[in-house]
Amino acid sequence: MSQSNKHRRPGKPKTPAAPDDDWQPWSDAWTKHVPTLTGRTDLHVFVAPGAGGGSPECFYPALRRIEVDADYIADTPQIADPRKAGHKRIVPTGYGLLVHGAAHAAHSRWTTPPGTRPILAEVADLLEESRAEGRQRGRRRTDRRWLRHTVNTILIDARTAPVDDLWHAGVLAALLLARVDARILTSKDVRGIRAAVTAVLGRPRLRRLREVWKQAHLVDDTDASSMIELARRWCEILGIDPNRHRKIPTADAGEFPGRLEQALADFLAAAVGLTPTDYRATILNRRHQAPGDWPSTPPTAEQHAAARQLADRIRRARIRNPETVRRGAVLPPGRLRTRHAIAADAQIAAGQTPTAQPWQHRTQQPPPKPTLHLAVLADLSGSMRTYAAELSSAAWIFAHAAHRGQAVTTTIGFGERTTLLVPPNSRPSQVLHMQPEGGTYTFCDAVKLADQMLELRHGRTLRLLAVVSDGDLADKPAAQKLITTLHRAGCAVLWLHPAELDSHTFTSTTTITVADPVDAVVRIADAAVTAIENA
Protein backbone atom coordinates (compact mmCIF):
# COMPACT_ATOMS: atom_id res chain seq x y z
CA MET A 1 0.00 0.00 0.00
CA SER A 2 1.22 3.49 -0.74
CA GLN A 3 2.55 5.25 2.28
CA SER A 4 0.50 8.37 1.72
CA ASN A 5 -3.21 8.54 1.31
CA LYS A 6 -3.89 9.39 -2.33
CA HIS A 7 -5.73 12.67 -2.76
CA ARG A 8 -5.41 12.90 -6.54
CA ARG A 9 -6.07 9.94 -8.78
CA PRO A 10 -6.33 9.53 -12.54
CA GLY A 11 -9.32 7.75 -14.03
CA LYS A 12 -12.33 6.65 -12.01
CA PRO A 13 -12.70 5.24 -8.49
CA LYS A 14 -12.13 1.48 -8.36
CA THR A 15 -14.98 1.08 -5.89
CA PRO A 16 -17.32 4.07 -6.31
CA ALA A 17 -19.30 5.10 -3.26
CA ALA A 18 -23.06 4.96 -3.57
CA PRO A 19 -24.89 8.30 -3.59
CA ASP A 20 -26.60 9.18 -0.34
CA ASP A 21 -29.78 11.22 -0.46
CA ASP A 22 -29.23 12.55 3.05
CA TRP A 23 -25.88 14.05 2.03
CA GLN A 24 -27.04 15.32 -1.37
CA PRO A 25 -27.66 18.87 -0.03
CA TRP A 26 -23.98 18.97 0.96
CA SER A 27 -22.91 17.88 -2.51
CA ASP A 28 -25.11 20.55 -4.10
CA ALA A 29 -24.03 23.34 -1.73
CA TRP A 30 -20.33 22.59 -2.02
CA THR A 31 -20.56 22.26 -5.80
CA LYS A 32 -21.92 25.82 -5.87
CA HIS A 33 -19.18 26.95 -3.50
CA VAL A 34 -16.16 25.27 -5.10
CA PRO A 35 -15.66 27.90 -7.88
CA THR A 36 -14.91 30.38 -5.09
CA LEU A 37 -12.16 28.07 -3.81
CA THR A 38 -10.67 27.09 -7.16
CA GLY A 39 -11.55 29.70 -9.75
CA ARG A 40 -12.94 26.85 -11.87
CA THR A 41 -16.56 26.46 -12.94
CA ASP A 42 -16.32 22.94 -14.35
CA LEU A 43 -16.05 21.05 -11.04
CA HIS A 44 -18.59 19.26 -8.95
CA VAL A 45 -18.38 17.88 -5.42
CA PHE A 46 -19.62 14.50 -4.27
CA VAL A 47 -20.21 13.97 -0.54
CA ALA A 48 -21.24 10.54 0.77
CA PRO A 49 -20.10 7.95 3.30
CA GLY A 50 -17.18 6.02 1.79
CA ALA A 51 -16.48 8.60 -0.93
CA GLY A 52 -12.84 9.45 -1.67
CA GLY A 53 -11.72 6.00 -2.78
CA GLY A 54 -10.37 5.02 0.64
CA SER A 55 -9.02 8.49 1.48
CA PRO A 56 -10.84 11.17 3.46
CA GLU A 57 -10.91 13.23 0.27
CA CYS A 58 -9.82 12.76 -3.34
CA PHE A 59 -9.73 14.81 -6.55
CA TYR A 60 -10.37 13.01 -9.84
CA PRO A 61 -9.04 15.25 -12.65
CA ALA A 62 -10.54 13.16 -15.46
CA LEU A 63 -13.99 13.38 -13.87
CA ARG A 64 -13.47 17.00 -12.67
CA ARG A 65 -14.82 15.82 -9.35
CA ILE A 66 -13.85 16.29 -5.70
CA GLU A 67 -15.04 13.52 -3.41
CA VAL A 68 -15.28 13.95 0.37
CA ASP A 69 -16.00 11.07 2.73
CA ALA A 70 -18.97 12.15 4.83
CA ASP A 71 -17.69 10.05 7.75
CA TYR A 72 -15.01 12.71 8.27
CA ILE A 73 -17.57 15.53 8.33
CA ALA A 74 -20.03 14.38 10.98
CA ASP A 75 -22.20 11.46 12.05
CA THR A 76 -25.29 13.12 10.62
CA PRO A 77 -25.83 15.62 7.78
CA GLN A 78 -28.20 17.59 10.02
CA ILE A 79 -25.25 18.92 12.02
CA ALA A 80 -25.18 22.11 9.93
CA ASP A 81 -26.65 23.80 6.87
CA PRO A 82 -23.95 23.72 4.15
CA ARG A 83 -25.62 26.63 2.35
CA LYS A 84 -24.71 28.98 5.20
CA ALA A 85 -21.20 30.36 5.56
CA GLY A 86 -21.10 29.58 9.27
CA HIS A 87 -21.27 25.83 8.70
CA LYS A 88 -17.52 25.66 8.14
CA ARG A 89 -16.89 26.54 11.79
CA ILE A 90 -19.11 23.65 12.87
CA VAL A 91 -17.37 21.08 10.64
CA PRO A 92 -13.83 22.51 10.25
CA THR A 93 -12.24 19.19 9.34
CA GLY A 94 -14.82 18.36 6.68
CA TYR A 95 -14.60 21.83 5.18
CA GLY A 96 -10.82 21.62 5.33
CA LEU A 97 -10.96 18.45 3.25
CA LEU A 98 -12.99 20.33 0.65
CA VAL A 99 -10.35 23.09 0.61
CA HIS A 100 -7.61 20.47 0.28
CA GLY A 101 -9.36 18.94 -2.72
CA ALA A 102 -9.84 22.41 -4.15
CA ALA A 103 -6.11 23.05 -3.79
CA HIS A 104 -5.38 19.99 -5.93
CA ALA A 105 -8.07 20.93 -8.43
CA ALA A 106 -6.67 24.45 -8.79
CA HIS A 107 -2.93 23.78 -8.71
CA SER A 108 -2.17 20.09 -9.32
CA ARG A 109 -2.51 20.47 -13.05
CA TRP A 110 0.33 18.13 -13.97
CA THR A 111 0.07 14.39 -14.58
CA THR A 112 2.68 11.72 -14.05
CA PRO A 113 4.39 10.93 -17.39
CA PRO A 114 3.81 7.39 -18.71
CA GLY A 115 6.53 4.92 -17.73
CA THR A 116 7.54 6.78 -14.56
CA ARG A 117 8.88 4.51 -11.84
CA PRO A 118 6.30 3.99 -9.08
CA ILE A 119 8.72 5.22 -6.43
CA LEU A 120 9.30 8.47 -8.33
CA ALA A 121 5.57 8.97 -8.78
CA GLU A 122 5.07 8.40 -5.06
CA VAL A 123 7.71 10.95 -4.04
CA ALA A 124 6.32 13.48 -6.52
CA ASP A 125 2.86 13.04 -4.99
CA LEU A 126 4.32 13.54 -1.51
CA LEU A 127 5.96 16.79 -2.60
CA GLU A 128 2.76 17.86 -4.32
CA GLU A 129 0.83 17.83 -1.02
CA SER A 130 2.63 20.82 0.48
CA ARG A 131 3.14 22.50 -2.92
CA ALA A 132 -0.60 22.54 -3.72
CA GLU A 133 -1.56 23.70 -0.23
CA GLY A 134 1.09 26.42 -0.31
CA ARG A 135 -0.25 27.70 -3.63
CA GLN A 136 -3.80 27.65 -2.29
CA ARG A 137 -2.74 29.65 0.75
CA GLY A 138 -0.89 32.13 -1.43
CA ARG A 139 -4.03 32.71 -3.45
CA ARG A 140 -6.49 32.56 -0.53
CA ARG A 141 -4.73 33.33 2.75
CA THR A 142 -7.73 32.52 4.94
CA ASP A 143 -7.78 28.91 3.67
CA ARG A 144 -4.75 28.14 5.85
CA ARG A 145 -7.05 27.92 8.86
CA TRP A 146 -9.04 25.11 7.30
CA LEU A 147 -6.07 23.29 5.79
CA ARG A 148 -4.53 22.98 9.26
CA HIS A 149 -7.58 21.01 10.37
CA THR A 150 -6.99 18.36 7.72
CA VAL A 151 -3.39 17.41 8.54
CA ASN A 152 -4.27 15.02 11.34
CA THR A 153 -7.10 13.50 9.26
CA ILE A 154 -4.78 12.92 6.32
CA LEU A 155 -2.17 11.21 8.49
CA ILE A 156 -4.25 9.40 11.07
CA ASP A 157 -4.85 6.21 9.06
CA ALA A 158 -1.93 6.38 6.65
CA ARG A 159 0.51 4.31 8.78
CA THR A 160 3.08 6.93 7.84
CA ALA A 161 5.83 5.96 10.28
CA PRO A 162 5.70 2.21 11.04
CA VAL A 163 9.49 1.89 11.46
CA ASP A 164 12.54 4.13 11.84
CA ASP A 165 14.22 4.07 8.43
CA LEU A 166 15.29 6.66 5.89
CA TRP A 167 12.28 6.25 3.63
CA HIS A 168 9.63 6.72 6.29
CA ALA A 169 11.55 9.59 7.88
CA GLY A 170 11.49 11.20 4.45
CA VAL A 171 7.74 10.64 4.18
CA LEU A 172 7.16 12.42 7.49
CA ALA A 173 9.44 15.26 6.41
CA ALA A 174 7.56 15.70 3.13
CA LEU A 175 4.12 15.61 4.73
CA LEU A 176 4.78 17.73 7.83
CA LEU A 177 8.07 19.62 7.76
CA ALA A 178 7.47 20.76 4.18
CA ARG A 179 4.12 22.22 5.27
CA VAL A 180 6.04 24.59 7.54
CA ASP A 181 7.78 26.12 4.54
CA ALA A 182 4.42 26.16 2.75
CA ARG A 183 3.22 28.22 5.75
CA ILE A 184 0.43 25.83 6.67
CA LEU A 185 2.00 24.57 9.91
CA THR A 186 4.39 26.30 12.27
CA SER A 187 7.78 25.22 13.57
CA LYS A 188 6.26 24.84 17.01
CA ASP A 189 3.65 22.43 15.64
CA VAL A 190 6.30 20.02 14.34
CA ARG A 191 9.03 20.42 16.95
CA GLY A 192 8.82 16.77 18.02
CA ILE A 193 8.52 15.54 14.43
CA ARG A 194 11.61 17.50 13.41
CA ALA A 195 13.64 16.04 16.29
CA ALA A 196 12.64 12.47 15.40
CA VAL A 197 13.24 12.93 11.68
CA THR A 198 16.60 14.54 12.34
CA ALA A 199 17.59 11.63 14.58
CA VAL A 200 16.90 9.17 11.76
CA LEU A 201 18.10 11.17 8.75
CA GLY A 202 20.82 13.35 10.24
CA ARG A 203 21.01 17.11 9.81
CA PRO A 204 22.95 17.18 6.48
CA ARG A 205 20.52 14.82 4.74
CA LEU A 206 17.46 16.63 6.10
CA ARG A 207 18.94 19.94 4.95
CA ARG A 208 19.29 18.58 1.41
CA LEU A 209 15.73 17.24 1.44
CA ARG A 210 14.49 20.65 2.52
CA GLU A 211 16.17 22.22 -0.50
CA VAL A 212 14.24 19.77 -2.69
CA TRP A 213 10.80 20.52 -1.26
CA LYS A 214 11.46 24.27 -1.28
CA GLN A 215 12.25 24.02 -4.99
CA ALA A 216 9.09 21.96 -5.48
CA HIS A 217 7.08 24.83 -3.98
CA LEU A 218 8.32 27.02 -6.85
CA VAL A 219 7.45 24.60 -9.66
CA ASP A 220 4.72 25.64 -12.06
CA ASP A 221 1.32 23.96 -11.73
CA THR A 222 1.74 22.12 -15.06
CA ASP A 223 5.45 21.21 -14.88
CA ALA A 224 5.46 17.43 -14.49
CA SER A 225 9.06 16.91 -15.58
CA SER A 226 10.42 19.16 -12.83
CA MET A 227 8.41 17.34 -10.18
CA ILE A 228 9.70 13.97 -11.35
CA GLU A 229 13.28 15.26 -11.46
CA LEU A 230 12.96 16.56 -7.90
CA ALA A 231 11.59 13.17 -6.89
CA ARG A 232 14.68 11.56 -8.39
CA ARG A 233 16.93 13.87 -6.38
CA TRP A 234 14.93 13.02 -3.26
CA CYS A 235 15.57 9.31 -3.78
CA GLU A 236 19.27 9.87 -4.37
CA ILE A 237 19.57 11.79 -1.10
CA LEU A 238 17.95 8.83 0.70
CA GLY A 239 20.32 6.40 -1.00
CA ILE A 240 17.64 4.87 -3.23
CA ASP A 241 18.34 4.11 -6.89
CA PRO A 242 14.99 4.43 -8.73
CA ASN A 243 16.29 2.24 -11.53
CA ARG A 244 16.94 -0.65 -9.14
CA HIS A 245 14.28 -0.05 -6.47
CA ARG A 246 11.23 0.31 -8.64
CA LYS A 247 8.69 -0.45 -5.93
CA ILE A 248 7.74 1.84 -3.10
CA PRO A 249 9.68 0.78 0.03
CA THR A 250 7.64 -1.04 2.65
CA ALA A 251 8.27 -1.44 6.35
CA ASP A 252 9.99 -4.53 7.71
CA ALA A 253 7.19 -6.48 9.40
CA GLY A 254 9.73 -7.80 11.92
CA GLU A 255 10.58 -4.37 13.33
CA PHE A 256 8.75 -2.51 16.06
CA PRO A 257 7.76 1.15 15.64
CA GLY A 258 10.23 3.64 17.04
CA ARG A 259 10.87 7.36 17.43
CA LEU A 260 9.03 8.37 14.28
CA GLU A 261 5.81 6.68 15.36
CA GLN A 262 6.12 8.16 18.84
CA ALA A 263 6.60 11.67 17.48
CA LEU A 264 3.72 11.30 15.02
CA ALA A 265 1.38 10.07 17.75
CA ASP A 266 2.35 13.03 19.94
CA PHE A 267 1.69 15.41 17.05
CA LEU A 268 -1.72 13.93 16.29
CA ALA A 269 -2.66 13.88 19.97
CA ALA A 270 -1.87 17.57 20.28
CA ALA A 271 -3.90 18.27 17.14
CA VAL A 272 -7.04 16.76 18.69
CA GLY A 273 -6.40 18.05 22.22
CA LEU A 274 -5.66 14.72 23.93
CA THR A 275 -2.73 13.41 25.91
CA PRO A 276 -0.53 10.99 23.94
CA THR A 277 -1.66 8.11 26.17
CA ASP A 278 -5.35 8.83 25.70
CA TYR A 279 -4.89 9.36 21.99
CA ARG A 280 -3.13 6.05 21.49
CA ALA A 281 -5.78 4.20 23.46
CA THR A 282 -8.55 5.81 21.41
CA ILE A 283 -6.93 5.04 18.07
CA LEU A 284 -5.95 1.48 18.93
CA ASN A 285 -9.40 0.68 20.27
CA ARG A 286 -10.97 2.09 17.13
CA ARG A 287 -8.66 0.26 14.73
CA HIS A 288 -8.91 -3.08 16.50
CA GLN A 289 -12.42 -3.04 17.88
CA ALA A 290 -14.17 -6.41 17.93
CA PRO A 291 -16.72 -6.98 15.14
CA GLY A 292 -20.26 -6.07 16.07
CA ASP A 293 -21.58 -9.54 15.31
CA TRP A 294 -19.43 -11.26 17.94
CA PRO A 295 -21.81 -12.51 20.68
CA SER A 296 -21.43 -11.67 24.34
CA THR A 297 -22.89 -13.28 27.45
CA PRO A 298 -23.02 -12.42 31.16
CA PRO A 299 -20.23 -14.07 33.19
CA THR A 300 -21.19 -17.26 34.99
CA ALA A 301 -20.74 -18.03 38.67
CA GLU A 302 -17.85 -20.33 37.75
CA GLN A 303 -16.08 -17.50 35.90
CA HIS A 304 -16.53 -15.15 38.86
CA ALA A 305 -15.07 -17.80 41.15
CA ALA A 306 -12.14 -18.42 38.81
CA ALA A 307 -11.36 -14.67 38.70
CA ARG A 308 -11.36 -14.49 42.52
CA GLN A 309 -9.14 -17.55 42.84
CA LEU A 310 -6.61 -16.22 40.33
CA ALA A 311 -6.61 -12.81 42.03
CA ASP A 312 -5.89 -14.52 45.36
CA ARG A 313 -3.01 -16.45 43.82
CA ILE A 314 -1.55 -13.24 42.38
CA ARG A 315 -1.83 -11.48 45.76
CA ARG A 316 -0.19 -14.38 47.58
CA ALA A 317 2.60 -14.44 45.01
CA ARG A 318 3.23 -10.76 45.66
CA ILE A 319 3.68 -11.27 49.42
CA ARG A 320 5.57 -14.57 49.29
CA ASN A 321 8.96 -14.80 51.04
CA PRO A 322 8.68 -11.78 53.37
CA GLU A 323 11.90 -9.94 54.06
CA THR A 324 13.21 -8.46 57.33
CA VAL A 325 13.24 -4.68 57.25
CA ARG A 326 14.13 -2.03 59.83
CA ARG A 327 11.52 0.55 60.73
CA GLY A 328 11.60 3.60 62.96
CA ALA A 329 9.10 3.99 65.80
CA VAL A 330 8.16 6.60 68.40
CA LEU A 331 7.68 4.07 71.22
CA PRO A 332 9.59 0.93 72.30
CA PRO A 333 10.28 -1.96 72.00
CA GLY A 334 13.35 -1.84 69.85
CA ARG A 335 16.82 -0.34 69.79
CA LEU A 336 17.18 3.23 71.02
CA ARG A 337 18.77 5.55 68.47
CA THR A 338 20.50 8.29 70.45
CA ARG A 339 20.66 10.85 67.67
CA HIS A 340 16.95 10.55 66.93
CA ALA A 341 16.11 10.69 70.66
CA ILE A 342 18.04 13.96 71.05
CA ALA A 343 16.27 15.36 67.98
CA ALA A 344 12.86 14.43 69.44
CA ASP A 345 13.73 16.14 72.76
CA ALA A 346 14.84 19.26 70.92
CA GLN A 347 11.61 19.38 68.93
CA ILE A 348 9.54 19.06 72.12
CA ALA A 349 11.56 21.78 73.86
CA ALA A 350 10.95 24.08 70.91
CA GLY A 351 7.20 23.52 71.17
CA GLN A 352 7.06 21.50 67.94
CA THR A 353 5.33 18.24 67.26
CA PRO A 354 8.10 15.61 67.39
CA THR A 355 8.71 13.86 64.07
CA ALA A 356 11.92 12.01 64.99
CA GLN A 357 11.55 8.28 65.73
CA PRO A 358 13.99 7.31 68.54
CA TRP A 359 13.29 3.56 68.44
CA GLN A 360 14.14 1.10 65.69
CA HIS A 361 12.78 -2.42 65.42
CA ARG A 362 12.69 -5.18 62.86
CA THR A 363 9.59 -6.45 61.11
CA GLN A 364 8.66 -8.87 58.36
CA GLN A 365 7.27 -7.27 55.21
CA PRO A 366 6.63 -8.60 51.73
CA PRO A 367 9.29 -7.54 49.24
CA PRO A 368 8.34 -4.91 46.67
CA LYS A 369 7.19 -6.58 43.46
CA PRO A 370 7.02 -5.08 39.96
CA THR A 371 3.63 -4.92 38.28
CA LEU A 372 2.96 -7.85 35.96
CA HIS A 373 2.09 -6.92 32.38
CA LEU A 374 0.51 -9.95 30.74
CA ALA A 375 -0.50 -10.05 27.06
CA VAL A 376 -2.41 -13.07 25.76
CA LEU A 377 -2.47 -13.60 21.99
CA ALA A 378 -5.12 -16.00 20.72
CA ASP A 379 -4.88 -17.62 17.29
CA LEU A 380 -8.25 -17.21 15.55
CA SER A 381 -7.51 -19.30 12.47
CA GLY A 382 -9.81 -22.15 11.56
CA SER A 383 -7.48 -24.80 12.96
CA MET A 384 -7.75 -23.22 16.44
CA ARG A 385 -11.54 -23.12 16.49
CA THR A 386 -11.89 -25.38 19.53
CA TYR A 387 -9.83 -22.97 21.66
CA ALA A 388 -11.84 -19.82 21.00
CA ALA A 389 -14.57 -20.33 23.62
CA GLU A 390 -12.22 -21.13 26.51
CA LEU A 391 -9.84 -18.29 25.66
CA SER A 392 -12.77 -15.87 25.48
CA SER A 393 -13.73 -16.90 29.00
CA ALA A 394 -10.10 -16.62 30.13
CA ALA A 395 -9.90 -13.07 28.78
CA TRP A 396 -12.70 -11.99 31.13
CA ILE A 397 -11.19 -13.91 34.06
CA PHE A 398 -7.69 -12.50 33.56
CA ALA A 399 -9.00 -8.93 33.28
CA HIS A 400 -10.91 -9.09 36.57
CA ALA A 401 -8.18 -11.00 38.39
CA ALA A 402 -5.57 -8.49 37.24
CA HIS A 403 -7.62 -5.59 38.56
CA ARG A 404 -7.86 -7.20 42.00
CA GLY A 405 -4.27 -8.43 42.04
CA GLN A 406 -2.42 -5.28 40.94
CA ALA A 407 -1.56 -6.56 37.48
CA VAL A 408 -2.29 -5.37 33.93
CA THR A 409 -3.48 -7.70 31.18
CA THR A 410 -4.84 -7.60 27.66
CA THR A 411 -6.17 -10.28 25.31
CA ILE A 412 -5.74 -9.90 21.54
CA GLY A 413 -6.98 -12.16 18.77
CA PHE A 414 -5.11 -12.50 15.48
CA GLY A 415 -6.37 -14.01 12.25
CA GLU A 416 -7.63 -12.18 9.17
CA ARG A 417 -7.49 -9.05 11.35
CA THR A 418 -6.12 -8.03 14.72
CA THR A 419 -8.86 -7.75 17.34
CA LEU A 420 -8.51 -6.18 20.77
CA LEU A 421 -10.75 -8.37 22.90
CA VAL A 422 -9.96 -6.85 26.32
CA PRO A 423 -7.99 -3.59 26.62
CA PRO A 424 -5.59 -3.07 29.55
CA ASN A 425 -7.00 -1.81 32.85
CA SER A 426 -10.56 -2.69 31.89
CA ARG A 427 -13.16 -4.86 33.61
CA PRO A 428 -15.62 -6.01 30.95
CA SER A 429 -19.14 -6.61 32.15
CA GLN A 430 -19.77 -9.24 29.47
CA VAL A 431 -17.80 -12.19 28.16
CA LEU A 432 -17.12 -11.43 24.49
CA HIS A 433 -16.85 -14.61 22.41
CA MET A 434 -14.16 -14.65 19.74
CA GLN A 435 -15.11 -16.06 16.34
CA PRO A 436 -12.35 -17.91 14.45
CA GLU A 437 -11.68 -16.78 10.90
CA GLY A 438 -9.36 -17.56 7.98
CA GLY A 439 -5.60 -17.66 8.41
CA THR A 440 -3.00 -16.11 10.71
CA TYR A 441 -1.97 -13.05 8.71
CA THR A 442 -1.86 -10.50 11.50
CA PHE A 443 0.33 -12.09 14.18
CA CYS A 444 3.02 -9.42 13.77
CA ASP A 445 0.44 -6.66 14.11
CA ALA A 446 -0.92 -8.34 17.24
CA VAL A 447 2.54 -8.45 18.84
CA LYS A 448 3.11 -4.78 18.03
CA LEU A 449 -0.29 -3.90 19.44
CA ALA A 450 0.51 -5.77 22.67
CA ASP A 451 3.82 -3.91 22.89
CA GLN A 452 2.09 -0.56 22.42
CA MET A 453 -0.50 -1.41 25.06
CA LEU A 454 1.80 -2.89 27.71
CA GLU A 455 5.29 -1.61 26.83
CA LEU A 456 6.68 -5.12 26.52
CA ARG A 457 10.10 -3.87 25.43
CA HIS A 458 10.63 -1.65 28.47
CA GLY A 459 12.15 -3.06 31.64
CA ARG A 460 10.24 -1.02 34.18
CA THR A 461 7.75 -3.84 34.72
CA LEU A 462 7.50 -7.61 34.81
CA ARG A 463 6.41 -8.68 31.32
CA LEU A 464 4.98 -11.88 29.87
CA LEU A 465 3.64 -12.58 26.39
CA ALA A 466 1.56 -15.76 26.11
CA VAL A 467 0.64 -17.07 22.65
CA VAL A 468 -1.85 -19.86 22.04
CA SER A 469 -1.25 -21.03 18.48
CA ASP A 470 0.02 -23.88 16.35
CA GLY A 471 2.66 -21.50 14.98
CA ASP A 472 1.58 -21.89 11.36
CA LEU A 473 1.95 -18.16 10.66
CA ALA A 474 1.91 -16.30 7.37
CA ASP A 475 5.30 -14.60 7.94
CA LYS A 476 7.42 -16.77 10.21
CA PRO A 477 10.74 -14.87 9.73
CA ALA A 478 9.13 -11.57 10.74
CA ALA A 479 7.40 -13.24 13.69
CA GLN A 480 10.69 -14.75 14.86
CA LYS A 481 12.40 -11.37 14.60
CA LEU A 482 9.77 -9.76 16.82
CA ILE A 483 9.95 -12.58 19.34
CA THR A 484 13.73 -12.33 19.49
CA THR A 485 13.52 -8.59 20.07
CA LEU A 486 11.14 -9.09 22.99
CA HIS A 487 13.30 -11.87 24.45
CA ARG A 488 16.41 -9.68 24.34
CA ALA A 489 14.45 -6.87 26.00
CA GLY A 490 13.65 -9.15 28.94
CA CYS A 491 10.07 -10.03 28.05
CA ALA A 492 9.34 -13.73 28.56
CA VAL A 493 7.47 -15.41 25.69
CA LEU A 494 5.32 -18.44 26.50
CA TRP A 495 4.13 -20.39 23.45
CA LEU A 496 1.37 -22.96 23.91
CA HIS A 497 1.00 -25.57 21.16
CA PRO A 498 -2.15 -27.71 20.85
CA ALA A 499 -1.12 -31.36 21.06
CA GLU A 500 -3.46 -32.46 18.29
CA LEU A 501 -2.03 -30.06 15.65
CA ASP A 502 1.21 -29.97 13.71
CA SER A 503 3.18 -27.02 14.99
CA HIS A 504 6.12 -24.76 14.30
CA THR A 505 8.49 -23.99 17.18
CA PHE A 506 10.04 -20.54 17.48
CA THR A 507 13.32 -19.90 19.24
CA SER A 508 13.60 -17.57 22.25
CA THR A 509 10.31 -18.92 23.62
CA THR A 510 9.25 -21.30 26.36
CA THR A 511 7.26 -23.78 24.29
CA ILE A 512 4.72 -26.06 25.94
CA THR A 513 2.39 -28.60 24.35
CA VAL A 514 -1.10 -28.40 25.84
CA ALA A 515 -3.69 -31.15 25.83
CA ASP A 516 -6.79 -28.97 25.53
CA PRO A 517 -8.04 -25.35 25.89
CA VAL A 518 -8.46 -25.63 29.67
CA ASP A 519 -4.88 -26.81 29.99
CA ALA A 520 -3.73 -23.77 27.97
CA VAL A 521 -5.52 -21.35 30.29
CA VAL A 522 -4.15 -23.08 33.40
CA ARG A 523 -0.63 -22.90 32.01
CA ILE A 524 -0.93 -19.15 31.37
CA ALA A 525 -2.22 -18.53 34.90
CA ASP A 526 0.54 -20.67 36.41
CA ALA A 527 3.19 -18.85 34.38
CA ALA A 528 1.86 -15.46 35.51
CA VAL A 529 1.88 -16.46 39.18
CA THR A 530 5.35 -18.02 38.92
CA ALA A 531 6.74 -14.91 37.24
CA ILE A 532 5.49 -12.75 40.13
CA GLU A 533 6.85 -15.15 42.77
CA ASN A 534 10.30 -15.17 41.15
CA ALA A 535 10.46 -11.44 40.48
Compact description:
The protein is of the alpha/beta class.
Protein model, in words:
With 535 residues, this protein is α/β, with parallel strands linked by helices. Helix content is 45%, strand content 14%. The chain is built from 17 helices and 14 strands. Strands 10-9-8-12-13-14 form a six-stranded mixed sheet, sandwiched between helices. A three-stranded mixed sheet has the order 1-3-2. A three-stranded antiparallel sheet has the order 5-7-6. The radius of gyration is 29 Å and the shape is globular. The protein starts with 23 loop residues before the first helix and ends with a helix. The model has no long low-confidence stretch (mean pLDDT 91). This is VWA domain-containing protein. Pfam families: VWA_CoxE. Residues 1-12 have a biased composition (Basic residues).
Properties at a glance:
about 525 residues; 6-stranded mixed sheet; alpha/beta; 3-stranded mixed sheet
Assign a percent range to the helix content.
Answer: 40-55%
Number-wise, the strands total: 14
Helix/sheet category: alpha/beta
Shape call: globular
Low-confidence stretches: none
Radius of gyration: 29 Å
Cα(first) to Cα(last) distance is 43 Å
Q: How are the strands of the biggest sheet laid out side by side?
A: 10-9-8-12-13-14
* Major sheet description: 6 strands, mixed
Q: Total number of helical segments?
A: 17
Average pLDDT number: 91
* Beta-strand residue fraction: 5-15%
Organism: Actinoplanes aureus
Biased composition (Basic residues): 1-12
Protein name: VWA domain-containing protein
Region (Disordered): 1-27
